[in-house]
User: What shape does this take?
Amino acid sequence: MAVLVLVGVLLIVVGGCVCVVWASRGGPRWVRAVAAVTLAAGELVRAGGSGRGSRSGSGSGSDGD
Assistant: This one.
């Protein structure tokens, strides 16, 4: 069951990436909408992950100075 859920998530992610590429080449309106949602979700994931990474990154940066 968990494998099916992971495969479904993978298909959604790949479909979103395809829509981003297609929209950059001038796709239909629904493709641009899916691409916008995909890019927004990517920004949210990046912002959520950067909070954890920035603490460790700032610590390693101060060690180098």
